[in-house]
Amino acid sequence: MPRCSVTRRVHFNAAHRLHNPDRSDAWNMETFGPCNHPNYHGHNYELDLTVEGDVDPATGYVMDLNRLKRLAQDRLLGHLDHKNLNLDVPWFRELIPTSENIAIVCWRELRAAIPAELDFRLRLWETPRNYVDYEGA
Ligand code: NI
Q1: Phi and psi at residue 96, in whole multiples of 5°?
Q2: What is the pLDDT of residues 52-109, one digit of tens each?
Q3: CA 118 / ligand 1 centre spacing (Å)
Q4: Mind listing the pLDDT tens digit for each residue in 76-88?
Q5: Residues whose beta carbons lie less than 5 angstroms from ion ligand 1
Q6: CB-based burial label for 62 (10 Å; 0-12, 13-18, 19+)
Q7: What pTM was estimated for this model as a whole?
Q8: C-alpha closest to that of 9 among 102, 125, 119
Q9: Catalytic hit among 16, 19, 35, 43
Q10: Residue of 106, 98, 85 lying closest to 131 (CA atoms)
């Protein structure tokens, strides 16, 4: 059975601040630099959602990408797009909204909705030059 990976790219705008309240202001500024700015700042995030598995002979699909798009809309973008991640999104109430943590949260939220026989990984772009990959574990 031929296997393929298929990818849907989705987009969201969000604001964040990287700050660890358990550490000093100096430590936070040293560690997070401009991303520690108290009044927040925004990113244009791109999120590549990749599903891998056997091509279903009945449909010719690994997974209908429109279905993946709708899942991303309902489970992720509805919560994240045009939000302040620190203030508006309960997932980050006690979790620093770095690209790593955003990627992990997005993976967990979508993994549960994707058929178990398909592998799932994602790539989150915070800027055109910085990205994070996550595939579970
Ligand atoms: Ni930032």
Answers
A1: -70, 125
A2: 999 999 999 999 999 999 999 999 999 999 999 999 999 999 999 999 999 999 999 9
A3: 32
A4: 999 999 999 999 9
A5: 35
A6: buried
A7: 0.95
A8: 125
A9: 35
A10: 98
Q: Which of 11, 37, 41, 82 is catalytic?
A: 82
Tokens in use for 76? 């992720």
Distance from Cα 16 to the centre of ligand 1, integer Å:
6
- Whether the Cβ atoms of residue 72 and residue 27 lie closer than 8 Å to each other: no
Burial label for 113, CB within 10 Å (0-12, 13-18, 19+), is middle
For residue 29, how far is its CA from the centre of ligand 1 (angstroms)? Answer: 13
Which value, to the nearest 10 degrees, does the dihedral of the CA atoms of residues 78, 83, 88, 91 take?
60
Distance CA 44, CA 42 (A): 7
